[in-house]
């Protein structure tokens, strides 16, 4: 365990600096080189115009979207693991990602088959993803709540069942899809930041601001929830409100992000474990650490995704799975050896 001063240095200086360096490198790296010298000269130079266009309309929104999505997934994983007291919990476990994926698959397949403009517009898939994720969250919450008491166990089990059902229905849609829809659906389900734009970031921002307020409020109550719901009540925390705020925070953070970028795995599971190796279990440190480290890792993963097979894009979900699986197995091995995470 690191000393308290070293942990604060890691959280307040090292992680923000690492995020800044990663974002700058990610902006600079790509299929088309950025001529910063021409950009600095400005004027009507063609190289300067091209560099400005690539910087402001392609690279910068993509890097910002990757950072925000990584932060959302990292924080959501930490909240889920604290709320469910389950080290494997992440937003995909309770069907939030699966609900967004099923709704998006419906729009892609039906839009391609019918040719209706409203279904084939660029906003239809993200809108469906948002509605699907919030619909899944609301359904699970109502199912697991009786007489004002929400059962975490019922949410967990029902979420696993719902996720399996949504995956099966998505499989049926894939089976019925034509070639165009199948290509779009396959790429979306593996995640990509290729369609990132400033208007999309503008739509995502209010949801993330609401999620940030939830993260700040949850830090103390989640520490108490680690001791069990009974102990948390004795300590004066409103346990049922903590569950409600936790679910809404995860839905606000993950639903819109998944809707715009597709399903991206392993960030929500792995990042909180890596942060706890440094900070310990205190959620006042785990939550901001997960926000920053999630942003760093997903920004770096997206940089790899668009440079490994340049000029083509590798779906970022493939990169996070390749990088995240060995790390997750290493974390499991530490637990098996009694070191703990």
UniProtKB/TrEMBL annotation:
GO MF term list: transmembrane transporter activity
Keyword vocabulary terms for this entry: Cell membrane, Membrane, Transmembrane, Transmembrane helix, Transport
Keyword Hydrolase in record: no
Secretion signal, residue range per the UniProt entry: none
Keyword Membrane: yes
Pfam families assigned to the protein according to its UniProt record, in alphabetical order: FecCD
GO cellular component, as recorded: plasma membrane
GO biological process: siderophore-iron import into cell
Membrane topology: Multi-pass membrane protein
The protein's name: Iron ABC transporter
Organism name: Acetobacter aceti
Source lineage: Bacteria, Pseudomonadati, Pseudomonadota, Alphaproteobacteria, Acetobacterales
